Amino acid sequence: MKLAFLGTGNMSRVIAGDHADAKAVVSGRDLARTALTALTVKLATEFNESGILINAVCPGWTATYPGGEAQGARPVADGAASIVWAATPPDDGPSGGFFRDGQRLPW
User: Fold this and answer.
1) Rounded CA gap, 103 and 20, in Å?
2) Domain of 41?
3) Which of 24, 39, 73, 101 has the fewest CB within 10 Å, making it most exposed?
4) Alpha carbon separation from 88 to 24, 56, 64, 75, 82 (Å, rounded)
């Protein structure tokens, strides 16, 4: 059985205070990302012996709206491929990580 969480993002810049306005109040989005990161790691640890793989996926900035690709967003198929990769890993695949395009990213 495999399980992939979606929609998290790289927290390293937020944790380091290196974001657009380091003095800004932490947003609900930042809190949600932190919670999803913690949940991914916690569940991956809890289910480690069960064969259930749990990972977070960032599909990247994906052109889910008209004109998105012209603005530099990735084609929808590329973003979707990241999610499909995470949802269909081999039985000995990674767990407890954060990925895009099959590559581990820093939290």
Assistant:
1) 26
2) 2-104
3) 24
4) 38, 13, 23, 21, 10
If one counts the domains in the chain, the total is: 1
- The domain that holds 62 is classified in CATH as 3.40.50.720
Distances (CA, A) of 104 to 36, 61, 96: 16, 17, 10
Strands (DSSP E) contained in 1-107 are 2-6, 53-57, 98-100, 103-104
Structure tokens at 10: 């790289």
pLDDT tens series, the chain, 107 aa: 555 554 555 556 555 655 555 555 567 777 788 888 889 999 999 999 999 999 999 888 999 999 999 999 999 999 999 999 998 999 999 999 999 999 998 87
